[in-house]
């Protein structure tokens, strides 16, 4: 059976993230693969449109910083070094597609659904990742 060498686990930093991380870590260890931990910060402009006449860059920086801190904690807990912790800004599915290509990832691991997709069989991010990723995708069932 071919083994995976480079895995990417995408987490949304909600209380469900550990469910995804636990399994990702187990699958990764079983394959002796390297794990990359990714969180995509969505641009604040998306949420507030262009209507508010204020500089959102400070808020964006704070979100970015908070995400890095949280990822750092998970990294320590699940044995993923700083060099494999990635925080980027953009649309989660597009950023994940890009990182898969850039880092020759052969398995992407996401939660089956989270904040955005909890009424769907497969959440919107999981679905978006599946369509357009050039490698295998594992969706961890969120309870
Ligand atoms: P959702 O699209 O909210 O249903 O989320 C489903 C899964 O997609 C989550 O469990 C994560 O694995 C992943 N995901 C959602 N949002 C993000 C994000 N901003 N950054 C990284 N992964 C995400």
Descriptive overview:
- The chain has a 5-stranded parallel sheet with strand order 3-2-1-4-5, sandwiched between helices.
- Helix 4 (92-102) runs parallel beside helix 5.
- It has 143 residues and is of the alpha/beta class.
- The chain contains 5 helices and 5 strands; from the N terminus they run βαβααβαβαβ.
- It has one domain: HUPs (Rossmann fold, 3-Layer(aba) Sandwich), CATH 3.40.50.620.
Q: Which second-level CATH architecture applies?
A: 3-Layer(aba) Sandwich
Helix percentage range:
40-55%
Total number of helices: 5
Cofactors and ligands: adenosine monophosphate
Compute the number of strand runs: 5
- Low-confidence region ranges: none
Q: What is the H/E order?
A: EHEHHEHEHE
* Biggest pleated sheet: 5 strands, parallel
CATH superfamily: HUPs
Query: How far apart, in Å, are the first and last alpha carbons?
Result: 29 Å
CATH class descriptor: Alpha Beta
Major β-sheet strand ordering: 3-2-1-4-5
Helix-and-strand structural type = alpha/beta
Average pLDDT figure: 89
Shape: globular
Looking at the structure, the CATH topology is Rossmann fold
CA radius of gyration: 15 Å
In short:
By secondary structure, the chain is α/β, with parallel strands linked by helices. The chain is 42% helix and 20% strand.
Characteristic terms for this protein:
single chain, 143 residues, alpha/beta, Rossmann fold, five-stranded parallel beta sheet, 5 helices, 20% strand, binds adenosine monophosphate
